[in-house]
Amino acid sequence: MSIILVVDDHGVYRAGLRGVLEARFPHSRVVEAPTLSCVGSNKLFDLILIDSGSLSYETLDLLAEFHEVRPATRVAVMLTSKARNDVLNYLSAGFHGVVHKLQSDEELLTAVSDLLSGRIYVPGWVADTHDEDLDRPTHSHIQRETLKLTSRQNEVLNLLARGMSNKEIARELNIAEGTSKIHTAALLRALGARNRTEAAFMAAKLVRSNEMERRSNDESTAIRRTRPKPFK
User: Fold this and answer.
1) Is the Cβ–Cβ distance between 63 and 48 less than 8 Å?
2) Strand partners, 100
């Protein structure tokens, strides 16, 4: 059973979000609190959704304590800003995702599902937003096939998309950390990413795109198999 913590100083929003999450994830338990300090740091949570307005030096210290107690805890920021730089800054700070508070229920549930499964979540509109100060285009339409990655690099790409560090990737794949760094550096070059945060974002988008394409192909195959033969 997954345990989700919602931190927001607006009680109505917390209650509404709790209702939506409990309806979609019946085997999960949702805990809500107006501030993070109201929750004991010894509590174990799989996911913490915290309003950006609740962030302070105190809450960041508390989040670090939560992570020490349970390193697998995922933390995502909820915000109302639609500035691309704000999203990238939160990811750079180490958060596992950014959830826009005004997005649809379905998008919100997709975000929570991705976060619980270990992925980094970034709102879809971020990839469609073009900041004028970016000095080169984003590679939003890159396909895995065009990257020509080795099997090992494909494995690293999947783990990078989940927000893993080089040390975590090395442990997961049973390779040396130095080897993990080499593969990650090669992926940054292949993706055309300027830093690890941008690479993780692009990898997550690429993995999600490939999963959607695979599902679409599976559904098309299933339809063809179940389609009745035409009368002669």
Assistant:
1) yes
2) 79
Q: How far apart are CA 37 and CA 54, in angstroms?
A: 10
Which pair of tokens denotes residue 153? Answer: 């690099």
The CA distance from 28 to 37, in Å, is: 22
Question: Which pLDDT tens digits describe the chain residue by residue (232 residues)?
Answer: 899 999 999 999 999 999 999 999 988 999 999 999 888 766 789 999 999 988 888 888 888 888 888 888 999 999 988 787 788 778 777 788 899 888 888 889 999 998 998 888 887 777 555 444 333 434 444 555 566 778 888 888 888 888 788 888 889 999 888 888 888 888 887 888 777 777 787 888 777 766 655 555 554 454 445 444 443 3
In angstroms, rounded to a whole number, what is the distance separating the alpha carbons of residues 118 and 108? 16
pTM for this structure? Answer: 0.60
> CA-CA distance, 171 to 203, in Å (whole number)?
19
Strands 29-33 and 97-100: unpaired
Helix (H), strand (E) at residue 145: helix 144-147
Ordered alpha helix ranges (H), 25-104 = 57-69, 84-92
How many distinct helices (H) and strands (E) make up the chain? Answer: 10, 5
